[in-house]
Amino acid sequence: MSEINRAAVAHLARLAHIEMTAEELDKMAGELDVIVDSIKSVQEVARPEVPATSHPIPLTNVFREDVVGETLSQELALANAPDAADGRFKVPAILDEE
Amino acid sequence: MSELITHSAAKLAELLAASEVSSTEVTQAHLDRIAAVDGDVNAFLHVNTDEALAVAADVDKARAAGEELHALAGVPIAIKDLIVTVGQPTTAGSKMLEGWMSPYDATVIKKIRAARMPMLGKTNLDEFAMGSSTEHSAFGPTRNPWDLERIPGGSGGGSAAAVSAFEAPLALGTDTGGSIRQPAAVTGSVGVKPTYGGVSRYGAIAMASSLDQIGPVTRTVLDAALLHEVIGGHDPADSTSLTDPVGALVEAARSGDVRGMRIGVIKELQGEGYSAGVQARFDEALELLRGAGADVVEVSCPNFKYALGAYYLVMPSEASSNLAKYDGVRYGHRVLPEDGSLTIERVMGATRAAGFGDEVKRRIILGTYALSAGYYDAYYGSAQKVRTLVQRDFAAAFETADVLISPTAPTTAFKLGEKLDDPMAMYLNDVATIPANLAGVPGISVPGGLADGLPVGIQFLAPAREDARLYRAGAGLENLLEATWGGPLLAQAPALGGVK
């Protein structure tokens, strides 16, 4: 058994900004427990001397000339916004009332 | 049913070049087919009738005027709805993006437009490409044209079903852990995951950026090569794009010569877990290749047994980060919580609760877990080390073999709903396709025949940047098998909607 219980999932859901009902938390905890149990075998072979690979094909960073190019117009960028005002994205209060 | 829809893209290109048919006729024939059968198949989320016919008419006019055209000009194509398109909605199969209109085209779409290929529409997928059955689409499952009670694979079940139901001669897919190859396998079509970086990912909605790759879904190996040459090549807009030339893929597909080719059978990707029918077709394929002069050898990739675990750590980790942008602020769904204070945090929480389906939530939470303090080294760190080991296995195998071979998927298409409540069983569908994504190497799935009346796929894998080998081996096997079947496998597909 892994450490994934309902409280752990509730914490992760808060970190991921996904509201979950008590029922969802229970179901997710059960499912993740099974999944984590089956995938943690990776630890068996992850010996210290094995280097990590983050990217399949080694590449070095690429730079481009700093020239002015085309970007999205403000109008296009805002076209899909759920709410906008004065050429900006509009959101509810950023901070809690406290 | 018009005979036009049964032709390969290569054949259509020939007929168009000789002005024996018009693009308008070809495009209309496919739109008619979509209208006739897609109520049953549900391969399309959006049908792009007006624009497709306008592009077709334009190509016809240009051809009549003697303009020089791309070889595939006028040949229609379907696009997986994970790839952004101006003028057509892009949903990624999610409620989160329902109604969203991309303000820009993906690089591959710009290339399709430049080649003047009419886009028939956008195809269904598991939400944000997360799944192996297309059942996780927020807009209903796609059905397998071979048996409408069965899944068409996933995540790109829509593209594979569209091609195998003759609704489109060509389609684009994306492959993060097998989402092009596994659907191709279970629908009797051809699917290619190019070398990582070989095709620009710019405008492919990201799931796991170090694994995602766009590629062709077609009915023949040659058609896949033709489409691969259209979409491949360097793109400055994708920082992981390779600068290498695309390579002579069409030439390799036209050759299909496997004499002297060293084909490595991956010991770990057969046997237990693979159904008897799949194993039988696989063994037959090996026998045919041997008979044609290929040098079939066995190779061992002992770390592949850890690949699935590594994948289900790396992929959700990257996905949880990539999907953080769906916050209800700049685009997509916004849901206001019904109770309590209306802060941006609560809006995000409610938006993501309502906008994402179960599988997406599962992977975001799993990724958040794998990346969280205290677990990072044990999970994400270990998975990255397994990636190194999988790459070493490939490198060793490619010392004794030019290409590797395995079944594409462990079973044929299963029934709708059969694995929906068992995430681990669903994940196991990708056991043979995942190693290629972890290592960035290219892979192809070609039809290998039927088991209990359902298609089986055979997979070839090649070293990075050696995609041409896939086309030579794939076409070789295709030729050998079609000689035994007396024609393409899809000619045996059952009629749909009483049309055929």
From TrEMBL, chain A:
Its EC number is 6.3.5.-. Keywords: ATP-binding, Ligase, Nucleotide-binding, Protein biosynthesis. It catalyses: L-glutamyl-tRNA(Gln) + L-glutamine + ATP + H2O = L-glutaminyl-tRNA(Gln) + L-glutamate + ADP + phosphate + H(+); L-aspartyl-tRNA(Asn) + L-glutamine + ATP + H2O = L-asparaginyl-tRNA(Asn) + L-glutamate + ADP + phosphate + 2 H(+). SUPFAM superfamilies: Glu-tRNAGln amidotransferase C subunit. It is an enzyme of class 6 (ligase). Gene3D superfamilies: Glu-tRNAGln amidotransferase C subunit, N-terminal domain. It comes from the Bacteria. The keyword Coiled coil does not apply. InterPro entries: Asp/Glu-ADT_sf_sub_c, GatC. The keyword Iron-sulfur does not apply. Allows the formation of correctly charged Asn-tRNA(Asn) or Gln-tRNA(Gln) through the transamidation of misacylated Asp-tRNA(Asn) or Glu-tRNA(Gln) in organisms which lack either or both of asparaginyl-tRNA or glutaminyl-tRNA synthetases. The reaction takes place in the presence of glutamine and ATP through an activated phospho-Asp-tRNA(Asn) or phospho-Glu-tRNA(Gln). Heterotrimer of A, B and C subunits. Belongs to the GatC family. This is Aspartyl/glutamyl-tRNA(Asn/Gln) amidotransferase subunit C. The gene is gatC.
From TrEMBL, chain B:
Coiled coil: none annotated. The keyword rRNA-binding does not apply. SUPFAM superfamilies: Amidase signature (AS) enzymes. It comes from the Bacteria. Keywords: ATP-binding, Ligase, Nucleotide-binding, Protein biosynthesis. It holds the Pfam family Amidase. The active site is at K80, S155, S179. Its EC number is 6.3.5.7. It catalyses: L-glutamyl-tRNA(Gln) + L-glutamine + ATP + H2O = L-glutaminyl-tRNA(Gln) + L-glutamate + ADP + phosphate + H(+). It is an enzyme of class 6 (ligase). Residues 25-470 form the Amidase domain. InterPro entries: Amidase (IPR000120), Amidase_CS (IPR020556), Amidase_dom (IPR023631), AS_sf (IPR036928), GatA (IPR004412). Heterotrimer of A, B and C subunits. HAMAP family: GatA (MF_00120). Belongs to the amidase family. GatA subfamily. Allows the formation of correctly charged Gln-tRNA(Gln) through the transamidation of misacylated Glu-tRNA(Gln) in organisms which lack glutaminyl-tRNA synthetase. The reaction takes place in the presence of glutamine and ATP through an activated gamma-phospho-Glu-tRNA(Gln). This is Glutamyl-tRNA(Gln) amidotransferase subunit A.
